[in-house]
Write a sequence for this structure.
């Protein structure tokens, strides 16, 4: 079974803090993604990566950065957390190819106070 | 740009059939996915369509019309456990591959 593991299920951080969300997959997938999910807005793509050290902006990259130093790990960084970044964050991975399904982690519910 | 529309909520009765529609506009279409997401859980893959027509997989079927920018997910013999959100997602290869999700349709199955 493919496993995508996110380091925390719930996080509470203060405004201005630097926040790291970690994601690890164990199936040697080339592609990795970070989404945030908000009621009424669905999943919105923040960043994605199709190879080690490669990254591409998604639809809402502002206020975020990412790091992919190893194939299995994709980190999302909030440089200075703000209250509008309170959300559910979902990591996903997939093989390369158009018809490959994405496998999701369980999500991290981040609250910024 | 991309745009994906699907109804916000639907209600259906156990044992019935329900059709969840999805319309999309995208410039680099390369396939459409349906995912199921139970409350508090991660989305899980249901189906993938890239050619026009119907794909059947047990109680679930998915249809695609590329010329109309339209898809639907058909759920037969509804069960209570089918109460979940159903996410339509489009693969867009403009400027690099990415999968864009709709806001999801919350399906309530009642006895």
């Amino acid at each position: 079974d493919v496993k995508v593991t996110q380091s925390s299920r719930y996080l509470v951080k203060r405004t201005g803090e630097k926040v790291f969300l970690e994601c690890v997959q164990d199936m040697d997938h080339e592609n990795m993604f970070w989404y945030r999910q908000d009621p009424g807005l669905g999943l919105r793509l923040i960043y994605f990566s199709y190879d080690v050290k490669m990254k591409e902006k998604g639809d809402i990259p502002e206020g975020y950065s990412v790091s992919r130093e190893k194939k299995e790990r994709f980190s999302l960084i909030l440089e200075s957390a703000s209250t509008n970044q309170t959300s559910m964050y979902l990591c996903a991975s997939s093989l390369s190819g158009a018809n490959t399904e994405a496998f999701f982690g369980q999500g991290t519910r981040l609250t910024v106070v | 740009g991309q745009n994906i529309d699907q109804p916000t909520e639907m209600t259906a009765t156990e044992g019935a059939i329900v059709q969840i529609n999805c319309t999309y506009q995208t410039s680099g279409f390369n396939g459409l996915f349906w995912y199921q997401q139970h409350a508090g859980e991660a989305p899980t893959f249901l189906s993938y369509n890239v050619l026009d027509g119907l794909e059947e997989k047990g109680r679930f079927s998915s249809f695609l019309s590329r010329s109309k920018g339209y898809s639907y997910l058909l759920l037969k013999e509804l069960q209570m456990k089918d109460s979940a959100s159903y996410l339509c997602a489009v693969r867009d290869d403009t400027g690099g591959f990415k999968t864009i999700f709709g806001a999801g349709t919350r399906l309530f199955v009642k006895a």
Q: What stands out?
A: The two ends of chain A are 36 Å apart (CA to CA).
